[in-house]
Design goal:
The protein is mainly alpha-helical and 180 residues long. It has eight helices and no strands.
């Protein structure tokens, strides 16, 4: 199995079809993150597609000294922030999260689905009440599945800064939940 760096080296050398392997590796986690940040799944899908297109078009500027994962997460985070900012300016209504990852073999009753939808709506509202750098760090950690070093790289901060953002965000969420 080729590493991300090996794939990018080969893509830069002209074997552009290999870029699809990177899309397969990262698309679902990027999409989970984007769906947690944006108001609708269509925008989230567009963001992820745009991130891959931007990475592909800038493939020759990619430096193999850095992890591809950091590069694609940073692109996705920046695009998602731009769209979220635009959305908040266009309208203030809050919608439920697009589906959170779950076991597709599990059959849920309409009541269970309604409860999960309400929980997602509440979490989305709470995440919008804390500073963006904290909510993004939480989303990267829990929706994107990133470790603290990857979060730090994507958010251009130190690893301890990434940990602090997640911790402070979780503390603020707990206070909000307590008062809700």
């Amino acid at each position: 199995m080729l590493s991300d760096v090996e794939i990018m080296e080969r893509v830069q050398a002209g074997d552009t079809g290999l870029f699809a392997l990177l899309v397969e590796r990262y698309q679902s986690r990027l999409l989970r993150f984007a769906k947690s940040k944006l108001e609708n799944s269509s925008d989230a899908e567009d963001i992820v597609q745009d991130a891959f297109l931007a990475a592909y078009h800038a493939r020759n500027s990619y430096s193999t000294d850095f992890a591809f994962s950091t590069w694609i997460w940073t692109i996705t985070l920046n695009l998602a922030r731009k769209v979220a900012l635009k959305q908040s300016g266009e309208h203030k209504k809050q919608q439920a999260f697009a589906s959170l990852p779950r076991d597709h073999q599990e059959v849920e009753s309409p009541i269970e689905l309604l409860l999960k939808s309400e929980q997602r709506e509440r979490l989305d509202l709470w995440l919008h009440q804390i500073p963006e750098n904290q909510s993004d760090a939480i989303r990267l950690k829990f929706f994107g599945g990133l470790g603290y070093q990857a979060i730090a790289s994507a958010m251009d901060c130190s690893e301890s800064g990434a940990k602090r953002r997640v911790k402070l965000g979780l503390l603020k969420l707990s206070l909000i939940a307590e008062n809700d």
